[in-house]
């Protein structure tokens, strides 16, 4: 029987970097507090404990040094770890987690990979010191929650962006099996109401750049026709390039690379369609599981699509989903403070409509006014050729295990 929503006495959050409050290539305390989860908790009046990571974050956060010329650097130093290692978190989301990780991956005492390190930071304290090592789902069950927020599956699709290879996508059959198993764990072992979000179109993020735009820019800069550059680079209109692909294009122009852009740097037009269809298929699974469980479904896919199509107008300024357009942070994948505020409102609006709560929306204008990445606060106009820096996202991809 479906569980009525609105009881936030004991609430937990499950998911990946998007629910952890990851921003600008880092899990960092001063950014985490602007994530959608603490915003929802604040508006609804319940407590949340996050895995707050000391500066410069894990991995070290990206820093916008200058808008013109565009200069983005990685913060120096190494984090000392959790600000609150003796406190059990209720935001259990682990950056880089895929569906299977939420159900089964536990922290280890001696992490070897970036993904193991970030898992330990979130899930390992204080548990490992007490001889406990649980997955997100197991922690959730043990908490005996009244409400569970679940936003999962984005990383199962995002691997295609970072690897340039749709073959890295989780099959629909495996996604169905894993999501069903996760939902069974949460619905049969708790009496919580579930609030579940679907997956955005991972091809429509500024981490990915339209080949048509890149070809036009290089044509204007070099004087060569687009047709010539298309053959030289091995890309066509309709393709999307990730930061690795953009770096390869620059190397070809500089004469330091003599081969076309590698498969790892580009999604062809046909591959883009494959990825988008796979996200649609994943969301069909999520919708069916939400309906079966009597859960509240949050349409994040529609939110991201709306921002992409129409932008976001706040205080008379219209931001965009482009790089440094106001919605996405410096890594081109995760939202800004303003973006997360919009995500929070999508959750709040779905809950108000779904089970009659009367939770006030986040005041997005107030958030934007103090958001350092909201364009009017940048102090200069962003160049149309601004792109996500390849060196910075390599660190993010290594830590999050993308393309694994």
UniProtKB/TrEMBL annotation:
Superkingdom to which the source organism belongs: Bacteria
Question: What InterPro entries does this protein map onto?
Answer: GDSL, SGNH_hydro_sf
Which Pfam family name is an example for this entry? Lipase_GDSL
The protein's GO terms of the molecular function aspect are:
hydrolase activity, acting on ester bonds
Residues passing through the membrane, by range = none
Source organism per entry reads Granulicella aggregans
Q: Which Gene3D superfamilies match?
A: SGNH hydrolase
Name listed for the protein in its UniProt record? Lysophospholipase L1-like esterase
